[in-house]
Amino acid sequence: MKTLKDVISLKFKTSESEGVIFHGEGQQGDYITLELKKAKLVLNLNLGSNQLGSIYGHTSVMTGSLLDDHHWHSIIIERHGRNINLTLDRHMQHFRTNGEFDYLDLDYEITFGGMPFSGKPSSNSRKNFKGCMESINYNGNNITDLAKRKKLEPSNVGNLSFSCVEPHTVPVFFNATSYLEVPGRPSQDLFSVSFLFRTWNPNGLLVFSNFADDLGNVEIDINEGKASVHINVTHVKKNRIDVSS
């Protein structure tokens, strides 16, 4: 395809922080790649570069954060020549691509959910998308519907299922005054705790527990955006251990 205008839209949800959402490339150096990197959305676009390097078309735009929260996020990419509108969850970002070319030349198949291994260093270092997509629309073509009805030719669909499996984890929301208290295990000499958390607040207490027989306590908190573990032990000389990350 050689296009002056493109409109690409889809919805996705995932608990993975890395993954290629879609990719297309051409023989003249053109490419478009939408991917997750560190739970942010990154659009890489090149409408063509010349061999001398005086026209270098690579453009990269990053938007959003914490997109691996397993909630639905919507993306719309609208391109007219070098003018791009990138909309993530109704937040629109406008930019112009580098270089001097207006057409996107894609000579190979467009892939959703990953990119084909081409032998280039860029292809083998990128992870495929793991999660759910719906309402994939590429320049007026309903890709989701075409894939389900097996109307895409040529196509290499791989192991797809047309349903979205929900994770088995159950989140718990805490406000500034709520907490969860569980019974201790006084007969155990091992203290072990693991959990995932997400917050916008730079400070807060995550876990606190007293040891049995007044031997001290352990505290896990967030202090100025850093997670810290404090272990207080009574009856010993070095009675406090602090670890932060």
From TrEMBL:
Gene3D superfamilies: 2.60.120.200
Residue ranges of every copy of the Laminin G domain listed in the record: 1-164
Signal peptide range: none
Name of the protein described by the UniProt record: CNTP2 protein
Gene from which this protein is expressed: Cntnap2_0
